[in-house]
Amino acid sequence: MGVIPDLEERLEELFDAAVSEIFTTRFHNMDRIGQGGFGILYYAEDGDGNPRAVKVYAIPKVGNQKVDVVVDQRGLKAIKRAEMFADKVRHRNVVHIFGSGTINLYDENVHWVEMEFVPREEGSNQPGLTLESYTNEYSPLKLTEFREIAHPIADGVAELHKLGIVHLDLKPSNILLDETRDNRPVVIDFNIAQKVDKHGMALEQSVGIPSSTIAAPEAEETGELSLRTDIYALGVVFEQLLGERTPLRYSHVIRKCKHSNPNKRYKNAGSLRRGLRIAQHFGKIIGTTAVAVLALAYLGYTNFNHQLAIEKENECVALVDSNPALAEKSCLVALSLEENRSRAYLYLGHSLLEQGRMEEAREAYHAVQYLAGQKQTLPEEVKRKALEFESEERVDLAIATLEMIIQDKPGNSQKHYPKLAELFLKQQRYEDAGKVLDKIVRYEDQYPEQFAEVSQYYFKQKAWIRAERFAKDAIKTRRRQLGLNAEHKHNTKEIPNNTEEIPRNETQLADYHFLLGDILFAQAKYDEGFDEYYQGNCIKPDRPDVFMKIGQMWLNQDKYSAAEEVARRAATLYEADLANARVERITYNEKLQRTNEEDIAFNIYSIQTKLLEVYVLQKDTQIAQGESIEDIQAKIRRIFREIQAYEAAQ
After folding, report:
1. What is the CATH number of domain 129-267?
2. DSSP string, 327-351
3. CB–CB of 405/386 below 8 Å?
4. What is the pTM of this model?
5. Average pLDDT of 302-307?
6. How do residues 358-395 score in pLDDT, each as one tens digit?
7. 199: number of CA atoms within 13 Å, CB side?
8. Residue 467, φ and ψ in degrees, nearest 5
9. Hey, where are the domains in the chain?
10. 1-117 — its CATH code?
11. What is the three-class DSSP state of 98?
């Protein structure tokens, strides 16, 4: 029985000697420091004497009276990942990969990777302790130790996520502590790391995950892998570092990391890092108040913590609108004295919101719900805060707040879309408003004017398809508001009249039909355009400008008689308007009851200009039909002289 250990030892010696011989020109002083399922890890020094860790993806075995090797084919993937990392990842908390390659060892192609060596102590060829070993010995860690380890880990993983890389095997045994640099944590082992797409999803889904990996629920159940898979693993690691007595300010962070729904977790390690920074704020405040609190307690003020917490919380409430930065500090003091004050968290969120620090505000609001034992959503007060910003004309903050609410609970966001679209329109951000309105399903009956406004924007941009779509939505939603069949249309063979129970003064719906008619007319969709003009005329008859457009449509299709007929109707209506305007001027001169004669004069001028267009249209149709045009030409000359006279007077 004693022969086998000797044989194994001899086998290792022969294998290591062969590896060292192959790497003679590249590395010196190679020494085996570890072995795992993937292969063997060596300490080595490069040509300049710099320490390195070299991983060889093979293990020795006894062959036919010779040394043989078992090659781990995962080494090829490791090389590809090494190439993905080399010259890209440069972060003090992520192991640096210098290179990779393939060697011929015992007639087998064996892959290897050269990495940064993380020492246990200065000058040592032994690797640093894993976080697993350190936690087993020292857990639970003090808060200062936790911050010194957890925050840099999050920093390192945030760099990976920023570069589009998901680790997928984050656990205490894959984090080394560099004791030569104040226990600098270093994330290692990228054997199953992947690139991610623009949505943070791993490019290869449902791949095999080692049993020793901290697996997120969705990875186990459906094989779904994403940046949020790493976030779950970090939550577990941080929880192990703090033990059972996790302070409230960090328990919320960990709870969010480990949420069973990946969409409720931090979206990446950058967001997690911000959450840790927020929690750290509380610790800083504790440091500034602790001495005063202890001194007053020594003097007999045993209830001082509670009293001061209430005082600081009330101070925060009073200052949140006028001085949000000072209000933030007051809330932090209150929370440093009593961590479970939900009102302080709420107004801390408000103060952060006032400063435009949305991510931090979200964390504070989540703490309110956490203390109340509710689901991780934003309290209703946040919606009221958005409306408050709107009433104060602070539209940017109102938009940011609503977007935060929608992002926090996307499944229940429909009711916020109309208000968000309205705010975008206030800022003339029509395309943003259009994107929001595209998502409206249940609440689309509430704001038809928003659809119309976005349609007009796209009409001006000559984006016909989107303009047409939003104009149709405006018509449908307005009809629903009036209790009408959304799809009803008048028979265009009928005489135009108000056949439905639509109020005669319902200009809004008519205008939406006219808008859609303009959009269709611009696309030379004349039959459809005429139909929309017709629908609008049924609701709001005798619009001379609409008759003009219809006339132009007929003219473009060589339907001269039809064009001339509607042009006559337009002329009749404009002439009546002109007569009324002239009566209005006489009334003004005689009774001095009008507000501005210049306005009346301009109104007459505008009508005359439109009449000129009508007469020109009539002339064009008469010429096309070969009829007499003398009377029309006389009208044109008369109107033209009046227009010239007005322009000269100006």
Report:
1. 1.10.510.10
2. HHHHHHHHHHH-TT-HHHHHHHHHH
3. yes
4. 0.53
5. 61
6. 877 877 887 777 677 665 566 677 888 888 888 888 88
7. 7
8. -60, -45
9. 1-117, 129-267, 444-541, 560-649
10. 3.30.200.20
11. strand
